[in-house]
Amino acid sequence: MLAPYPRQCRKNTNTLSRFDFLTLGLVVVMFVVLGIESNAVAQSLPASRLPNIVIMMADDLGFGELQCLNPTRGKIRTPCLDAIAANGMVFSDAHSGSSVCSPTRYGLLTGRYAWRTRLQSGVLTGGESLIAKDRLTIAKMLRGRGYHTCVVGKWHLGMLFDGKHQTGDVPVGNRVTDGPLDRGGFDEFHGYHHAGQIQVWVDNDQVTGAVEPVEMLPRLTQAAVDYIDGREGKDQPFFLFVPWSAPHSPVAPAHEWQGESGLNAHADFVMQTDDSFGQVIKALERNGLTKNTLVICTSDNGTSAPTANIPRLQSLGHFSSGDLRGSKADIWDGGHRVPFLVSWPTKVQPGSRCDDLVCLTDVFATLAEILAFEIPETAAEDSFSFYSALTGKHVARDHVIHHSNLGYFAIRHGDWKLACCPGSGGWSKPKPSIAFWSETQSAGRPMVQLYDMRHDIGEQNNLVADQPEKVLELRAILDRIIAQGRSTPGANKANDTKIVVDKPPLETKRK
Predict the structure, then answer these.
(1) How much is the pTM?
(2) Beta strands 352-359; 340-343: pairing state
(3) May I ask the CATH class of domain 50-397?
(4) Torsions phi, psi of 388, nearest 5?
(5) DSSP one-letter string for 308-353
(6) Is 368 within 8 Å of 141 (Cβ atoms)?
(7) Which residues of the chain have pLDDT under 50?
(8) What kind of fold does domain 403-484 have according to CATH?
(9) Where are the domains of the chain?
(10) What are the angstrom distances between the C-alpha of 229 and each of 225, 226, 272, 352?
């Protein structure tokens, strides 16, 4: 997999030296000047010259599933995503805002950590949208700059059917509210709400049919391709967000993909998902849209150990998290360090790589910088632009807050990571059970975890006893960011609810 060498942004093999703290002030001033210059250029561009934007996000695709990110311990062929990586930039230290689905989607679209909302653990199963009515989203921002906006895929941020929270099958004709159009700010929606209702197909604001699970990924792929084909001859820039259904459960690879990996059904489904990414790229190429389109490919969290049958995959030599510890739901990096690939032929050099720390919440500020949009203080409170990285410079972010399925926190600051719980904080063993915590306390082992991520990417050597001052330093930063209601500069904001970091042990169950 990508080696944990010193963090840097690179163009091919030409390395950039690390920042000297004595000159940091001058560098910041230079970045501001360059930002002003790029904004001035963006302001002068007509709508027809603004870049199209395509964001594709797999569901439960771990960091190590991609062959290009995990060449020695990965056995699943992913030629389409590998080609996207080769034609653009690979981010080796990118993180989702959570180790499960709904909160990551919220963070991507709003630029705000979802743990600042009412959703303190787990995922949504329906009901009122997690996105407040007055919350600015990427789609709303882009529509204000003249974009046509469309989401194709799994929404999972709340949805009402005929004004009610309905589970299971929903009759055709039911009207959808609290969904992608009225809360997300999109012009179009084609897809479904979440895995528990994968059979309920929605077009825009109405239930229009039923879909078998095995048909969902092909249908989403065709809908995304059809949308791009439909943009032919139109001068209006577009934003297409594609949160795929796969390889999340139900693990249902199409007949032609069954057995293709030689590993198991999950690996087959990963290969089919990779092909769906590739079909969207081919549609862009076919319509002559590649040159002026910014494409971001990522995942919402790590691989689901129960549905992927990770022990079986590992016995065959495939490690879904690469050299990272843990998987979906965990506070360890296997839960939330995700593939993150960016292609933009007019800006990003093929074969480039960035090792700086980024989060999916940062997409908001990055697009805002590209479009010269001034983000109000009431929006994108946890979003830092990585636009500078696309041309080989460094990213301003030096910290990310992680959140597990059960609501446990960790903070990454530079090379150091503090997890505010023992064990995984999620589904992997040792789980945050009463028995494990009692055993940990009785043995005199630390109840928190501190890792040097540069030298211990697998989070095996807990340095709490050796670095007690670092524990206090990172915890103070975490508490400050929580209390401020934002991690970006600006006036303090109120979180939507009380945030509790020091949680008791919880018996976990998979949701």
Answers:
(1) 0.91
(2) unpaired
(3) alpha beta
(4) -60, -35
(5) HTHHHHHHTT--TTTTSS--TT-SSGGGTB--EEEE-TTTSPTTEE
(6) yes
(7) 1-8, 10-44, 508-511
(8) Arylsulfatase, C-terminal domain (3.30.1120)
(9) 50-397, 403-484
(10) 6, 5, 21, 29
